[in-house]
Design brief:
It is a single chain. This protein is an alpha/beta fold. It has one domain: Metallo-beta-lactamase, Chain A. Helix content is about 35%, strand content about 25%. Strands 1-2-3-4-5-6-7 form a seven-stranded mixed sheet. A five-stranded mixed sheet has the order 8-9-10-11-12, covered by helices on one side. The protein binds zinc ion. Zinc ion binds next to helix 2.
Amino acid sequence: MKIQFKSEELIIFESSLYRTTTSLIIGEQYILLVDPNWLPIELDFIEETIQEVGKDKETYLLFTHSDYDHIIGYGQFKNYKTIASSNFVNNKNQASILQQIEKFDDEYYVSRSYDIEYPKIDMSFAGNNEKLQIGADSYCFYQAQGHNIDGLLTFNESKGILIVGDYLSNIEFPYIYDSLVRYKATLASLEQIINQYTIRILISGHGDFTTDKSEMLQRIQDSRKYIADLEGSILNQKEFDTTQLYTRYKFPIIMDAFHQGNIKLAKAELRVK
Ligand SMILES: [Zn+2]
């Protein structure tokens, strides 16, 4: 499995599928695993790595949001203490999320060593700037809606690690399953966090991490521009420039399906037929 980044206190694994990231924060007394995914061979590799770096440590498992690609590995790490947003716990679409996993595994003949189930969460967070101490590290959580309804931004203040789930990717434009208004609110809170704290590394759910503050802020601007162009094209009934979009983002067949989904959602939210 590809390792995108490795230090004493952080490993970022990258799946061969959708360049999905799994983060592993390594403390003195604990490890925190985030969104383990996708394939059995990849999950085994992650588990073996934890056996090396996490020996005799407390184990935590955090989900950035409930999209199926981010919870698919839950069963392999089920005995860990789990963390997610309260919206994640109360998500009403649990059955259809699990169905997506079953469909994926069926389509690609994937057998897993565990049953597919929706994560049971031990510690959930409903507010912004909510604190949690794990080992010697202080964590701070923020709600992140817009992409979907139950995102959680995780900031390890002690190590300067910000994990944002499916926002601020350098390889995807915004995929909006929940709401434009709430997506923009999440971008505003990301901007505030990045300006207020020293972020040593920002990790997105798909694509490359960045350690560069100007790139973090640029990614916010890129997301804002896409949303503004989307809204503009709908409100002014102008064609969206997809040629330019798929020059910047590399997978035009699947990405066009997401772009069409965004158009549908935006039309409904903007009340345009
Ligand atoms: Zn994702």
